[in-house]
Amino acid sequence: MGSGRGHSAFTNEELSVLKQAFDQACADLGLTPDRTLQREHLAALIFQMATGGETDCATLRRDGVARFGNGVPWTPIEIRRAEVIALTDRQTLGTKADRDDKA
Asked: Residue 79 and residue 100: Cα distance in Å, rounded?
């Protein structure tokens, strides 16, 4: 497994590396299982690096810890999903209003 190639899907071996990097980074940061949002944040950071092509466990661990410690922005999926739905609803309403104005 190398680095430098982007991913749209991961093999079981690659997922195992991601889990190992995540578990080790959680231990480095002292993120216990009850710190769900922080662990989700770290997982998202590691996953983003992996989808960018990085699959080396040590690099994912080290850079994940560094990004987490530097406060790299991240939003929980529930909030991002709600924002997308709200945006879609506004666009749909705007389109309907435009049609009503023309009628």
From this structure: 31
